[in-house]
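Researcher: Here's a chain I'd like modeled. Treat it as a single chain, no partners, no ligands.
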Amino acid sequence: MISVEYSFQEKKIFLTRINTFDGFEDEDFINDLLKNIMEIAYERKLKVVPILPKIALFFRKNTSYKDLLPPGIKI
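Model: Modeled as a single isolated chain. Structure tokens:
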């Protein structure tokens, strides 16, 4: 099972952790999962706060999602 831990606060979703099983290394799957989460954030008009460095890296590689970052958050 693969999951993303998060919390909500004031129209923001804080992405805190990606849980995978031992030996899982399919980065394309993780990127697709994160893209789906970003689309949901767009639909629900949420801002996304990447707590996990892997998610911050996703934002650096996928600049089209940078407008989901709250004001003051620089990646």
